[in-house]
Specification:
Blueprint: E1 11-12, H1 19-38, H2 53-60, H3 68-77, H4 87-97, H5 103-123, E2 132-135, E3 138-141, H6 142-160, H7 170-190, E4 195-201, E5 204-211, E6 214-220, E7 230-233, H8 235-242, H9 248-253, E8 257-260, H10 262-266, H11 270-274, H12 281-292
Parallel strand pairs: 1-6, 4-7
Antiparallel strand pairs: 2-3, 4-5, 5-6, 7-8
Helix pairs in contact: 1-5, 1-6, 1-7, 2-5, 6-7, 7-8
Length: 305
C-alpha cells in the first residue's frame, strides 16, 4: 500500500501535529523515567499488587522475546489489521520470563525501548504516523500509540516516587495528559460520539473535541478553564485518577478533583463499555455513576498496569 493509499481526510488529533510535536514529549518522558528507574531499588514492592519496581520496568523494556513497538509498526504497515493483544497475558509472560534479570539487564531493556522509539521517529516514513494500528484499546493512528508511551511512563513514574524516585517533571505529566486526551478523543470519534472535554491543571492542560470527522486536541494555558465538560486537578492527581491509582470518587469528595458539566462528560461514558481498559476509564465511570446513579467505579484500568 502506498502513501497515497493511506491519505486521510479525517482529523486525527496529535498524530496530525506530527513528530516535531510528539517526539520531544515521548523522549522527554523516557529520559525522566530512566532517571527514576536508576534511582530506586528494583526489588522493592510497588503499590501494584504483586509487582516490584523490577516488574514495572521489565514490562516497559525491549527483550528478545518482547518488542512491542516493532509489532505495532508491522500492524501499521499491514493497514491496522489483527486483533488487540491480551495485555494481561503479555505482561504475565514477559515479567515471568525475566523475573531473575539483573538490574543492569533491566535498565538496558528500558534503554532499548527508548532507542526503538528514537529509531521510529528518525527512520520510519512519515505516512506511518497516521496509519491505523491495532492497539490494546482499538485502532488508533500509529503516532498516537507512540505518544501513549508518555502516559504509561508518567503513570509508572508516579508509581516509583514512593520508592524514592524523583517526581516526574511537570512537562512529563503534561505529556501524559496529552496522550490521555488524544486517545479519549480517538475512541469518542470511532464510537460516533460528538463531544469533548478538557483536562485542566494549574499549569494548563489539554482539551479534545470529537465528531464524525475525527478529533482534535489542543493545549490549554493556565489562565482560565474552558467552557464545557472538564476534569480539574493537579496533573499528578488527574493521571492517578485516570489510571485507577486514586479513586476518583474519593478525590472528588476531598476536593482534590473537580468535575465541570457532568452532563457533557456523561456523553463520553459509553466509551468505557466499548473499551473498558482505556486510560481515563475510572473518571468516565465516575461520570456515569454520578449522572446515571448506576454502575461501579473501575478500581483500576482493567487489563492494564
Amino acid at each position: 500500500m502506498t502513501e497515497d493509499d493511506r491519505s486521510h481526510t479525517q482529523r486525527q488529533g496529535l498524530a496530525d501535529a506530527g513528530r516535531d510535536v510528539v517526539g520531544p514529549m515521548v523522549l522527554g518522558a523516557w529520559d525522566a523515567f530512566l532517571e527514576q528507574a536508576a534511582a530506586v531499588d528494583l526489588d522493592r514492592p510497588t503499590r501494584l499488587p504483586g509487582w516490584r519496581a523490577h516488574e514495572v520496568c521489565v514490562h516497559l523494556g525491549v527483550w528478545p522475546d518482547h518488542a512491542a513497538l516493532a509489532g505495532l509498526v508491522a500492524s501499521a504497515r499491514a493497514g491496522g489489521t489483527g486483533t488487540p493483544p491480551d495485555v494481561d497475558a503479555t505482561n504475565a509472560r514477559v515479567t515471568a520470563a525475566h523475573r531473575d534479570a539483573s538490574r543492569a539487564e533491566v535498565l538496558a531493556a528500558l534503554r532499548r525501548n527508548r532507542e526503538a522509539t528514537v529509531g521510529y521517529l528518525a527512520d520510519e516514513p512519515a505516512w506511518l504516523d497516521t496509519a491505523p494500528v491495532v492497539s490494546t484499546v482499538g485502532r488508533l493512528p500509529m503516532l498516537s500509540v507512540v505518544l501513549g508511551q508518555a502516559y504509561e511512563l508518567a503513570v509508572h513514574g508516579l508509581d516509583l516516587v514512593p520508592l524514592g524516585a524523583p517526581p516526574p517533571p511537570p512537562e512529563v505529566l503534561q505529556a501524559g495528559l496529552a496522550a490521555l486526551a488524544d486517545v479519549t478523543g480517538a475512541l469518542a470519534s470511532s464510537s460516533g460520539i460528538t463531544g469533548g472535554a478538557a483536562l485542566v491543571t494549574p499549569d494548563g492542560g489539554w482539551a479534545f473535541a470529537a465528531a464524525d470527522g475525527g478529533w482534535t486536541v489542543r493545549r490549554l494555558d493556565g489562565d482560565a478553564r474552558p467552557r464545557g465538560a472538564a476534569v480539574e486537578a493537579r496533573a499528578d492527581v488527574l493521571l492517578e485518577a485516570a489510571s485507577g491509582r486514586t479513586n476518583p470518587a474519593a478525590a472528588l469528595v476531598r476536593r482534590r478533583l473537580r468535575v465541570h458539566d457532568l452532563a457533557g462528560l456523561m456523553q463520553l461514558a459509553p466509551i468505557v463499555e466499548s473499551a473498558p481498559g482505556i486510560p481515563g476509564g475510572p473518571i468516565l465511570a465516575l461520570a456515569a455513576r454520578t449522572v446515571g446513579g448506576a454502575g461501579d467505579l473501575l478500581g483500576r484500568l482493567r487489563g492494564r498496569r
